[in-house]
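Throughout our pipeline, every protein is held as a single compact record rather than as scattered files. The remainder of this section carries one protein's record, kept here as part of the documentation.

===
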Amino acid sequence: MSGAEDVDGAVRRWRGLSETAVLLDGFHALKHALRFGATVPAVLTSDKDAALGLADELAPDVRDRIAELAVAVPADVLRGLVPRAHPTGVAALALRPDRAAQLAVLAQRQRSAPAVVLDNPRNLGNAGAVIRLAAGFGATGVITTGSLDPWHPTVVRGAAGLHYATAVERLQVDELPAGPLYALDPEGKDIRSVTLPDDALLAFGSERSGLSAELRERADELIALPMRPQVSSYNLATSVGMTLFHWSTSSGRPAPL
């Protein structure tokens, strides 16, 4: 097969998958997706030698897999296939995990780590940062309510491909899995006085309007992060990180290394 035929075939495969597959934007998203078992049928790069150099330096565990999957294409071809070319010159398409399997993980009766609930989030980048945090702490998953798609390309980019390291789904409030629900609210009990159980649902309101009335009614307890007077709020991802850190320390189980 000639180089031109190889490029043409890779581009045809990309276009055939792009409507349904998950865009992995950049080397780091690809690295994480492969590490956590994603099925990746298409990888394109405008500089394969540079991509493999990054793999040698940062991800030798998946270097051979990247070498096998990656097809070098001209930079202008890659730019025409993705919304915004990543500085690493790498883009890939992965299959989305089976929804039924993801819901089964979230619905486990004896979860060993909390699930994070983002109640009607609005900011795609914030949602991605939360998923990245949840993956880092070994949370069971991240659930969003409302209209935001947690698998939107911008969310996946913000999470650096770590959707595949935790369960990520969108549900309505009345579809949330069982478990004690602790909702973050300025009027709640100081989180430092609360031990968060492993099977907790940790709920955070939207950046603009806070908790919805429906979720507040569903909550078993309102809890609050310590905050200096006259400071109105923390960034959403910061709040999630602080809460997961409190869970990991108060439960006696440090974040995984």
About this structure: The mean pLDDT is 93. The CA atoms of residues 107 and 226 lie 31 Å apart. DSSP finds ten helices and ten strands in the chain.
